[in-house]
Amino acid sequence: MNQAALHRLLTSKEGIKGTHPTEDLFNIRLATNLSLIKTLFFSLYPESLKNKIHFHNLLDSMEQLFELRPDELKTLDLKRIEQGNWYQNERLVGMQLYVDRFNKDLNGLVNKLSYLNNLGINFLHIMPITTRPSGESDGGYAVNNYHEIDPKFGTKADFLALTALARSKNILLMLDFVVNHTSDEFSWAKKAKAGDEKYQNYYYTYPDRTIPDEFEKTLPEIFPESAPGSFTHVPEMDKWVMTCFNSYQWDLNYSNPEVFIEMLGNLVKMANMGIDVVRFDALAFLWKKLGTISQNLPEAHQLISLFRLCLQVIAPGVILLAEAIVAPRNIIKYFGEGILEGNECEVAYNASLMALLWNSIATKQTSLLYKSLMEIPAKPNDATWINYIRCHDDIGLGYDDDFIRDMGWNPNAHRKFLLDYYCQGLEWSPAKGLIFMYNPKNGDGRITGSAASLLGLEKALEEKDKVAINLSIAKILMLHGIILSYGGIPVIYMGDEIGTLNDYSFRTNEEHKNDSRWVNRPVQDWKIVDKLKSKKNHSYKIYSGLKKLIQLRKGLPLLADNNNLVLHPSSNSHVFVFERTRESGGLWVVSNFDEETQFLEVAWLFSIGISFGRNPKDLITKKDLVLNEGRLKLSPYQHLWITID
Ligand code: GLC
């Protein structure tokens, strides 16, 4: 039972339920969490007189932050405690979008809520909208302020109006909390530059290269092409500051408890604007230690849990998403382990599934997909995934080398094949992507490009190849069908619902030209949307196919994430089959990753529960399954949602 469940139990007890105003419930929540909060705090910040004072400051600050939480949100918090794991619901379907690129600004987004509603979207990941440096800002992930809305998106009043409207329409909102770093224009950075030591200690600053050199022996480079190294010299203070990402993104020093306390304040004030889910950006990097890669360290987990538990007391209706794009075994740890199980992040990106799906598309094989997914330890019952195929970032090739070897492939050669396949290194490949951050020192590189272009649509349209266009549409729908049924919250990337292609205009944009991820951050083409009704083209087929899948999902309670997922390693190495189980007959999701027709034997289908005596049918086409000489025939990239009577 995680802490949230404990609250539910306590507040449902006779004598507590209904009789206490929200303020008393704060005290109950504090009492429930205090001992864990204290343990975590003093394990990060060893007990000393100074740290005891900081701990008292933390408790005072929590009370003040609770005071600041609007009453409407306090009431929502209570409702959510009663509801339990509301984020595991099958009715949730998300979209990730850039406000300005979607429809100009916040008011423009409001004007398009009916479009989103029509598609079935009720959860929005709104990309950063707060103030950032002019010029390069890593798409707003260099934060000047956590609560001031950048005027290019609108005003704070506009944003509050949007959050209120979303609440009234049951649309959930997610915003990033860029927790690992601030921009070099953030008020603390400015004070540090001006020589204020207190604020220099909010970051990792060093007078010379001695410690930076030590760190760089083990710190991996995140943006080796555009921002090599992990430290930047700041002439104003004549010091080196740690900058793991870009030179203008200064890593916060969480070994300083004041940083934690202030950042908790920033987090709550952001949540208080009406945010339901907070995306903890780059959270694997939160703790730095010499001699390590400074990712996924145990202290980082303790720190995130500390954020989580304080939030549990102040704003329990708000949940955290782990943006940990790390090895599968490490991702799962962000749900919390041991005593902290279920008390870290409620949601994590299923980056493993995402990257493996792209591997299966390129290889037309599902063996690595099965092997890797089956090795991932079970997640806690209270946790769930965000399932996605594309987002604004690159696709990393973080597969387990041993598993690649088990497939009989050489890990380096295999990664090179994937880069070639997706990034125009192979004449025959249908994909048109770009390489992101190629590192000639070790041959590492990542992939970027829009889903449609990576899945062959761009090339097929250029070549006016109808067969290839249809194959690409089938792939797009198949991958989306998987994320819509896999277990977790599916999040569609803006534009993918209409098959948006790569946008090469970043190459001539001063702010974007060094970052090829911008090829997949296009401006939404509303002309295409306007024509959806009249033109039955590829965009229409993708949009209507997706809409149908979304509607289907919402009508199937077994798709709520009740940890009811079973993988069925298929007898056919091109096919991926999983089942969402329930007591009486589940849902089997079948996907053919090959561009050739494939077959599944009836005996094998029977062995996983699909009995032809029980009239299996595909919910997507509403057609009965028919056998072809004792086998189920799957056309290229066919995707089925099978149920039985
Ligand atoms: C996350 C964001 C990415 C950004 C990085 C640094 O990974 O998704 O876009 O560059 O954090 O903030």
Q: What does this entry look like structurally?
A:
- This protein has 645 residues and is of the alpha/beta class.
- It is globular, with a radius of gyration of 25 Å.
- It starts with a helix and ends with a strand.
- The model has no long low-confidence stretch (mean pLDDT 95).
- The protein binds alpha-D-glucopyranose (GLC).
- Alpha-D-glucopyranose binds at residues 138-139, 141, 178, 245, 281-282, 323, 392-393.
- The site of alpha-D-glucopyranose has 10 residues, from loops.
Keywords, please?
binds alpha-D-glucopyranose, 24 helices, 6-stranded antiparallel sheet
Topology (elements, then pairings):
Layout: H1 3-12, H2 22-44, H3 49-68, H4 71-83, E1 94-97, H5 99-103, H6 106-111, H7 113-119, E2 123-126, H8 156-168, E3 172-177, E4 181-183, H9 187-193, H10 197-200, E5 205-206, H11 210-216, E6 231-234, E7 239-242, E8 249-251, H12 257-271, E9 277-280, H13 298-314, E10 319-322, H14 328-331, E11 347-349, H15 351-363, H16 367-375, E12 384-387, H17 401-406, H18 411-422, E13 434-439, E14 444-448, H19 451-454, H20 457-462, H21 466-485, E15 489-493, H22 526-530, H23 538-554, E16 565-567, E17 575-580, E18 587-592, E19 598-601, H24 602-607, E20 617-618, E21 623-624, E22 627-628, E23 631-634, E24 639-643
Parallel strand pairs: 1-2, 1-15, 2-3, 3-9, 9-10, 10-11, 11-12, 12-15
Antiparallel strand pairs: 4-8, 5-7, 6-7, 13-14, 16-17, 17-18, 18-24, 19-23, 20-21, 20-24, 22-23
Helix pairs in contact: 1-2, 2-3, 2-13, 3-12, 15-16, 21-23
This protein binds alpha-D-glucopyranose.
Residues 138-139, 141, 178, 245, 281-282, 323, 392-393 line the site of alpha-D-glucopyranose.
